[in-house]
Amino acid sequence: MGREGPRPRSALAALDEARFGPGRTLNLRAMLPTPGQATARAESWLRQKQVERAGEVLVITGRGNRSVAGVSVVRQAILALLRTLRRRGVVDAVREHTPGSFVVALAPLSSLRSAPARRKDPTPEPATDPRVLSGLTRETRKLLRSVALRSLEALGVREPDAFVEREMVAQLSHLGATVRAGPMREERLRSALEVLLDELEHR
C-alpha cells in the first residue's frame, strides 16, 4: 500500500482555492518576507479587502518548520497585527485555519469610526483641523459630507448640520490609515466613502 500523507493537504488546498480564490488569499509564505515586511503587506492588504467588502479572507503565514525552534516569527507577527487590527475596527474575528494559516473576518468599514481608543494602542489622535478638507475636490467633499451626516444621524445627534464639519474631519482622519497617500488617492478615497455611506444607510 502507498502512503496517503500528501493527499489531505492537497485536498485542503484545493478547497481553500475554491472557497477564497486568489483575490481573497494572501500567501505570505510564498513571499518569504521578514516580520516587518509581512505585517506591512498584510495590513495594507487587509485594509483594502475591508474596503472591497471581501468578508472572510485567508492569510497564509507558514508553520515555521525551518525557523529557529520551529516557531514562525512571521506567524507570530501576523497574529499580533490581527489583534491590533481587531481593536482598530479592521478585523471582526480571527480563527486558526491550519497551523500555518488564519481565516480573517473583516469588519464593516464603519467600524473604523466606532473603534474604541486605547492608551496602549499607538494610533494617532484623529485630526481636528478643518483645513484638511480644503485639499479635496468638490465631489469628494460632497460625498464626505453625506457620510458625516449619516453618521451623526445614526448616533441620534439632533441638528447634525452644526457638527457636520467636525464629523467630516473625523471620518477623513479614520480613513487615513486605509486610504494612504499615493497614486489615485482621491479616487480610492471616494470608493471607500461610497462603501461607508452604503453601510450607514443600510444599518
How is this structure best described in words?
This protein is an alpha+beta fold and 203 residues long. The protein folds into 2 domains: 12-107, Ribosomal Protein S8, Chain: A, domain 1 (2-Layer Sandwich); 116-201, no CATH class. 50% of the residues lie in helices and 11% in strands. It is built from 8 helices and 4 strands; from the N terminus they run H-E-H-H-E-H-E-E-H-H-H-H. A 4-stranded mixed beta sheet has the order 1-2-4-3, with helices on both faces. Helix 3 (35-51) runs parallel beside helix 4 (73-87) and helix 6 runs parallel beside helix 8.
Topology (elements, then pairings):
Elements: H1 6-20, E1 25-27, H2 28-31, H3 35-51, E2 56-60, H4 73-87, E3 91-98, E4 101-106, H5 111-114, H6 138-154, H7 164-175, H8 185-201
Parallel strand pairs: 1-2
Antiparallel strand pairs: 2-4, 3-4
Helix pairs in contact: 3-4, 6-7, 6-8
